[in-house]
Amino acid sequence: MSYKLVAKQGSIFDEEHATFIVNPSNTRLLLGSGVSAAFKRECGKELQDEMSNTLLNIEGGLQQGDVVATGPGKSKKFDIALHAAIMNYDPGTKQIDKYPTLQTISKVLQNIEQYLQWYAKHKSRTMKLVLPMMGCGVGGLKIEYVAKIYRDFFSKEVDYECEVVVYNFDEKNHKIVTKLYA
């Protein structure tokens, strides 16, 4: 079996139901702008409270590329939120070091896959993962490069069924990704 990679245009919350939805967050797990703001609207204060409590229990805090799971807050559109530390918001971080690299995106995908493997082993061998083009907004990464990383990562064989739905908010970026995934 392999991942089934699909590109769609719109908001990740347009998806009817997903097992996992990815929030491209930061090392402080603060809901802010972009996709995180959509999470804040969809999931409510309950999600931010759970994210803050989760961070308190992580010894040493988060590093860029780390991924942590929480519940969906008040949302009924997905089961598990995966918060990917894309931006480095740690105090004292130099401005240039706040932004993700393509290696950050690769590390995030590897960490997301650990959650998928756990889910396949303990819950169900069939699932849906919904994610935006991480690092392409405030992070400043080129959409073509991130889309290629996704395509290459999700082209491998796995022992479970996982539909991977990649959302692009605007039409121009959606066309770029659709061409790469055709």
**CATH topology descriptor:** Leucine Aminopeptidase, subunit E, domain 1
CATH superfamily: Leucine Aminopeptidase, subunit E, domain 1
The count of strands amounts to 6
Number of domains in the coordinates? 1
Mean pLDDT: 94
Instruction: Sum up the overall morphology in one term.
Output: globular
Strand coverage percent: 15-25%
Instruction: Give the CATH architecture.
Output: 3-Layer(aba) Sandwich
Order of helices and strands: EEHEEHEHEH
Estimate percent helicity.
25-40%
Q: pLDDT below 50 for ≥5 consecutive residues: which ranges?
A: none
Question: What distance lies between the first and last C-alpha atoms, to the nearest angstrom?
Answer: 19 Å
CATH class: Alpha Beta
Counted by DSSP, the helix tally is 4
Radius of gyration: 15 Å
The main sheet orders its strands as 1-6-5-2-4-3
Kindly describe this structure:
The model has no long low-confidence stretch (mean pLDDT 94). 36% of the residues lie in helices and 24% in strands. It has one domain: 3-Layer(aba) Sandwich (Leucine Aminopeptidase, subunit E, domain 1), CATH 3.40.220.10. It is built from 4 helices and 6 strands. The chain has a 6-stranded mixed sheet with strand order 1-6-5-2-4-3, with helices on both faces. It is of the alpha/beta class and 182 residues long. The chain is globular, with a radius of gyration of 15 Å.
